[in-house]
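Dear V.,

Thank you for sending over the compound details. I've combined the ligand you provided, adenosine-5'-triphosphate, with the protein sequence from our construct and run the structure prediction for the complex. I'm sharing the raw inputs here so there's no ambiguity about protonation or stereochemistry in the SMILES, which I know was a concern on your side last time.
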Amino acid sequence: MTDISHTPVSAPPLLRVRDLVCGYGPIGVLEQVSIDVHERQIVTVLGGNGAGKSTLLKAISGLLPATAGQIEFAGQDIANLGATQIVDRGLLHVAEGRRLFRTQSVMANLDLGLYGAKLGRAEERRRLDEVLTMFPMLAERPNIAAGALSGGQQQMLAIAQALLRTPRLLMLDEPSLGLAPIIVDQVMDVITRLRAQGCAIVLVEQLVERALEVADKAYVLQNGRIIGSGTPAEIHGSDLIKHAYLGV
Ligand SMILES: Nc1ncnc2c1ncn2[C@@H]1O[C@H](COP(=O)(O)OP(=O)(O)OP(=O)(O)O)[C@@H](O)[C@H]1O
Ligand SMILES: [Mg+2]
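Below is the predicted structure of the protein with adenosine-5'-triphosphate bound, written out as structure tokens.
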């Protein structure tokens, strides 16, 4: 892999993935994938359709078992933990396609976000108030079915649901999918606000330019391998994107 990054970062990474090999049964997808995400960093993972971006997020969040390699979060090995234990440690994953309960109300979906957190009522209330302040449009329509929200509102609800678990790292899989450009602006704004609040982000995006605008670092994935990484400026100045998306 070509590491074209020149930015030294001294603190140990919050998320450290090394030589990850993973797939679906006999079908191998990821081969020796290594990435680092530091506190308060937005790290984007770019790559064409089928490159393995969603597979990488699923492996990190414990939805898919790793065949080989290491995954450490906050200095601890999480490669063999179950998905709920990983969530408990503050690593949250908003999956591709916003997996909401479409017939359930906004509030019911938020309550499901708190499910399993084992908090007292007062703390639940405090966290709900916090996310409803962050996403006023959800506060305005608490009883509407999630499926009746616009695409952008559904994305905000899916993010809000994850935020209720106070993530240290939030992984977002194509949050802009199907959204109008002005709504994509709002999603990117939420992502940069979260970083300012101290949350690290892994952002998988098809909108390469938009992702590079907000990211601190980018990895480029092709056929299950990282073919390069660097700052957005370094990625812009390289042929990596052309390689990854056009295969040239
Ligand atoms: N459930 C599954 N069973 C078998 N193979 C799968 C499964 N999900 C994905 N794959 C395969 O794994 C490879 C990587 O898929 P993945 O969904 O990780 O790609 P991606 O980079 O997220 O693509 P996209 O941009 O289209 O979302 C593809 O070849 C895909 O066909
Ligand atoms: Mg995907």
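A first observation: The mean pLDDT is 92.

Warm regards,
I. M.
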